[in-house]
Structure to design on (1045 residues):
């Protein structure tokens, strides 16, 4: 094996003299000696067929940055997209903290040399606990999909039952994830939403509820942007048959919406992307699961739970893993599901966000989203042929607009909007064909009145 | 005087009672501790290994820093035109639907939030700060800074995943190219970048295995999965979630990997798959791996390769060449994306053409005209394993890292990782009390699971305690996944990022701690002494009456006692500093 002629800046021991010295120290004649345990028949006998190295940062940034330059971002376009990933104000301090090398490049150290991440994550969980009015919150799982799927598996373990009733007002990708994750032992059934209000059809729920139901799963607001005003009744109905109520909630709405715990929900779950994390083309997600501090539920979490504890020094806080013996780290397949690397840095970031926002900021966020969303609903409802099917329901940051009456498809409308620099709402026509040519429009606190007016004017042109 | 004011005195008091041959490390005291070699004419040479003290800000929990009314950030005001049109819809929410009481979040000015988290960050050790070879299996390597700049661009950070494909051609092309790179590196036909991390990639492979057998009408007949004890626990755990019975193979005491006979005994017509890491977490490469795959194939099962430990074999040997049907990489390990204190990470699964139809949807496809699109129409797909298409920032970082190295550079990465590992192996084995069980005298690939059994028997100091003491030297040290098949384990993985001098320094720290275990064991038993905090009372963590996962739970369970102690402190009575010890 010939020595590498280039000393690579990422690989200090490519210095030929050092390599020779190290080989000599271990009694090897060349690098090939070190691979003696890999049989020749398994060796790749040619160089990898990959493009040659871009050795300088200049070349690298030109190449990779050049690829990214071909994207048009939501800073360049006015976006009304949501559907699970949201454009919110991201405070500069959030990016500052998650860019700190100490957090960014750390991993799995012990509670001593990595005290900082333990405390930051404990604080994240604690602030989420305030937002959710619950005493137990996990160290983040991958995303809201995983949080929902795991929350449902937890409910099945708590109750020893196998039927799950899921709202039909749920994203189809999310339902797909839950279905695959809960197979083969759990059975999913769908509870329709009321066609007039967009809320869960409680009559249909009642017909499906029996004492073999492990959990009723609803979202607040639901995937159609509608606030479930009957959440208390849904929870009560679930409890009457001994099922748990699992509620996925958008944490950005909790300054104005009552937390699921306030109506007795057993497990809350959701995604923390709205809390100070950029959209990242869908790469900025983290999932939370929360509950009361009830050992019956706590012992069913697969995730890590960080707890506070005293040290040998008075007034000093220490942190560590609570009830570790339930995890796959401790017990492999005998633990609950599994635990692994997930989304800790986004958890730290969401904690920074909540600390910056405080109670007043979260209240203002919710009010702003609601005002902008209702304003947008009014502007679109005034357009000929456009219908807001759940107009009389409460919405926080999203709503459905139905273009069926315009004779145009959502895809068609969105293409025309894009020519005007606007990203129209997410197309629901494929996933919710019953809603017709429907789109899900989001208007968060960053969408100005001017943005929304521009959308209305553009739609007026497009639909004329 | 507050309790916090007392803390430094307490620290000094407790440390002073600790016997130590390294007073300059164990004390917060002045540097005179190493005086004697100084002279008026020169600064004395530095001791080796270095003196260290971690930042220790004695930082309160953020709720304790709250000042009612303080604001950390403001939002765009609601325009009068919107107010006039809709009023305040939040006020119209029915009782019980709207929030009745504001969340009890802390209230801080912006600088105070920043300062709190900056202080906490200083109490954390990243790759950028330490010789991070002690977190074995984790592949702690340098994450190039130039890549951080790339992912912070709004051209990535401010992309919504549902944008029209014409507006995201750059990132789609990058993902497509990265898939091709990883297909070449693994030898597989197709790759998905959707999994969020390594364990989710394992799950994705298990879900595809399940879907494959179901498509052949064998879902019920094949209900067993075989794995090995030195493969990551998520292999066993994910298989269990998917409904499989898990058979775990243990190593042959001589070779360190399971024997072919043991595999043959475990494999049957009920076998759905073999899930295996190679090299395993011992750094031992199973040279019969292709025969393992053959045995499983002959029984009608599939073979999935957990390539978490791929850092030593890039361009050397490939999953496909050993016959595997599926594999996965951890992009946050082998391909350099930063570990983020435990994610976000990224996983990539590679499969043969036969398994391609089962890949998660959507896939990234290149059209004849050279444009890129997402294909959601995949009827045999297992569906979504996570929202959208993958952890995009980490895909960009991994792509950039591969481009910065090229084929020769990737090979240099692996060769150097293996060189570093075998060099460190030789250095560690020189330490009295350390050993590397299995495969005596043979080369390891990229990591080694060592044992301190001899040292523990001689001194009563356990491996976990040595690990805690290593924190006093400014580094990490990890034992092993459970169960501890290797007694008193320590797993070290010195990737290509570390220099010979780094490895010498790390070995010197280990040697010093092992010496302490023999000569002044109390120093190790009572560590850490130079870290952010002192020995934690772990008894709270398994006691439902005392554990507290949030601050509100802490206040409910311990608030009264805390208030009483605060009252005593205010009255000038010194608090017990070992109340729960």
């Amino acid at each position: 094996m010939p020595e590498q002629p280039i000393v690579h800046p990422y690989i200090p021991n490519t210095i030929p003299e050092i390599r020779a010295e190290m080989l000599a120290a271990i009694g090897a004649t060349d690098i090939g000696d070190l691979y003696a345990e890999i049989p020749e028949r398994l060796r790749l006998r040619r160089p990898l067929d990959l493009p040659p190295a871009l050795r300088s940062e200049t070349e690298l940034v030109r190449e990779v940055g050049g690829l990214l330059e071909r994207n048009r971002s939501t800073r360049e376009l006015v976006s009304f997209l949501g559907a699970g990933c949201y454009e919110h104000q991201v405070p500069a301090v959030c990016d500052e903290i998650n860019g700190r090398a100490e957090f960014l490049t750390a991993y799995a150290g012990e509670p001593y040399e990595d005290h900082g991440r333990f405390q930051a994550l404990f604080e994240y969980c604690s602030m989420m606990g305030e937002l959710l009015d619950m005493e137990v919150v996990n160290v983040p799982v991958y995303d809201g999909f995983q949080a929902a799927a795991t929350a449902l598996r937890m409910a099945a373990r708590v109750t020893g039952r196998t039927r799950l009733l899921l709202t039909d007002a749920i994203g189809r990708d999310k339902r797909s994830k839950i279905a695959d994750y809960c197979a083969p032992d759990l059975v999913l059934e769908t509870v329709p939403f009321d066609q007039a209000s967009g809320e869960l059809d409680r009559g249909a729920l009642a017909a499906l509820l029996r004492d073999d139901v492990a959990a009723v799963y609803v979202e607040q607001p639901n995937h159609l942007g509608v606030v479930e005003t009957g959440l208390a009744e849904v929870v009560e109905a679930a409890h009457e048959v001994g099922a748990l109520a699992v509620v996925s909630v958008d944490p950005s709405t909790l300054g104005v919406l009552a937390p699921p715990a306030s109506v007795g929900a057993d497990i809350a779950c959701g995604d923390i992307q709205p809390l100070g994390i950029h959209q990242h083309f869908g790469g900025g997600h983290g999932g939370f699961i929360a509950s009361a501090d009830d050992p019956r539920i706590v012992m069913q979490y697969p995730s890590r739970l960080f707890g506070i504890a005293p040290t040998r020094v008075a007034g000093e806080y220490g942190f560590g893993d609570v009830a570790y013996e339930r995890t796959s780290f401790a017990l492999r397949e005998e633990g609950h599901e599994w635990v692994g690397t997930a989304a800790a840095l986004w958890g730290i970031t969401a904690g920074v966000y909540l600390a910056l926002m405080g109670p007043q900021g979260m209240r203002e966020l919710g009010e702003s989203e609601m005002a902008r969303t209702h304003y947008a609903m009014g502007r679109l409802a005034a357009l000929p042929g456009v219908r807001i099917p759940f107009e009389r329901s409460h919405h926080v940051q999203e709503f459905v607009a139905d273009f069926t009456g315009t004779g145009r498809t959502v895809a068609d409308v969105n293409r025309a909007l894009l020519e005007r620099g606007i990203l129209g709402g997410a197309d629901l026509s494929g996933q919710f064909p019953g809603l017709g040519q429907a789109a899900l429009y989001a208007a968060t606190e960053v969408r100005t009145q001017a943005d929304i007016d521009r959308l209305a004017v553009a739609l007026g042109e497009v639909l004329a | 005087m507050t309790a916090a004011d007392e803390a430094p005195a307490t620290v000094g008091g407790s440390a002073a009672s600790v016997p130590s041959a390294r007073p300059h490390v164990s004390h917060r005291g002045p540097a005179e501790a190493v005086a004697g070699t100084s002279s008026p004419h020169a600064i004395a040479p530095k001791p080796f290994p270095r003196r260290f003290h971690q930042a220790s800000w004695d930082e309160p929990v953020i709720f304790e820093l709250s000042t009612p009314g303080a604001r950390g950030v403001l939002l765009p005001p609601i325009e009068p035109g919107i107010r006039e049109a809709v009023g305040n819809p939040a006020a119209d929410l029915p009782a019980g639907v709207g929030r009745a009481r504001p969340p009890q979040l802390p209230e801080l000015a912006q600088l105070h939030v920043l300062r709190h988290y900056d202080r906490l960050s200083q109490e954390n050790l990243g790759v950028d700060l330490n010789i991070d070879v002690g977190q074995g299996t984790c592949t702690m390597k340098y994450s190039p800074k130039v890549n951080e700049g790339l992912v912070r661009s709004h051209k990535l950070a401010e992309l919504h995943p549902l944008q029209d494909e014409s507006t995201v051609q750059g990132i789609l092309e990058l993902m497509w190219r990265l898939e091709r790179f990883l297909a070449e590196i693994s030898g597989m036909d197709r790759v998905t970048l959707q999994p969020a991390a390594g364990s989710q990639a394992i799950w994705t492979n298990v879900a595809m295995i399940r879907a494959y057998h179901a498509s052949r009408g064998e879902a019920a007949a094949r209900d067993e999965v075989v794995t090995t004890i030195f493969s990551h626990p998520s292999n066993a755990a994910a298989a269990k979630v998917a409904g499989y019975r898990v058979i775990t193979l243990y190593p042959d005491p001589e070779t360190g990997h399971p024997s072919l006979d043991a595999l043959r005994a475990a494999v049957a017509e009920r076998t759905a798959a073999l899930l295996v890491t190679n090299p395993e977490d011992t750094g031992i490469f199973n040279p019969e791996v292709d025969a393992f795959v053959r045995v499983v194939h002959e029984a009608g099962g599939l073979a999935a390769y957990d390539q978490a430990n791929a850092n030593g074999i890039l361009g050397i040997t490939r999953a496909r060449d050993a016959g595997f049907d599926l594999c996965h990489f951890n992009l946050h390990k082998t391909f350099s994306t930063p570990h983020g204190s435990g994610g976000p990470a990224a996983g990539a699964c590679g499969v043969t053409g036969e398994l391609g139809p089962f890949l998660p949807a959507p896939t990234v496809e290149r059209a004849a005209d050279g444009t890129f699109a997402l294909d959601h129409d995949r009827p045999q797909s297992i569906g979504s394993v996570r929202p959208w298409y993958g952890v995009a920032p980490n895909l960009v970082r991994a792509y950039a890292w591969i481009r910065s190295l090229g084929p020769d550079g990737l090979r240099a990465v692996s060769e150097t990782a293996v060189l570093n590992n075998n060099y460190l192996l030789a250095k560690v084995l020189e330490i009295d009390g350390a050993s590397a069980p299995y495969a005596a005298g043979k080369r390891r690939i990229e990591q080694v699971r060592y044992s301190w059994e001899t040292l523990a028997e001689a001194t009563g100091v356990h491996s976990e305690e040595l690990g805690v003491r290593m924190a006093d030297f400014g580094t990490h040290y990890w034992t092993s996944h459970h169960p501890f098949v290797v007694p008193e384990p320590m797993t070290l993985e010195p990737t290509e990022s570390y220099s010979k001098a780094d490895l010498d320094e790390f070995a010197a720290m280990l040697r010093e701690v092992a010496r302490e275990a023999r000569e002044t064991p109390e120093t190790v038993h009572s560590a850490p002494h130079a870290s952010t905090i002192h020995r934690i009372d772990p008894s709270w963590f398994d006691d439902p009456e005392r554990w507290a996962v949030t601050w509100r739970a802490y206040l409910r369970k311990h608030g009264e006692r805390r208030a009483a102690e605060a009252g005593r402190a205010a009255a000038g009575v010194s608090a017990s500093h070992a109340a729960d010890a």
Remarks:
- Chain A touches chain B through 220 residues (CB under 8 Å).
- Chain A has a mean pLDDT of 97.
- The radius of gyration of chain A is 26 Å.
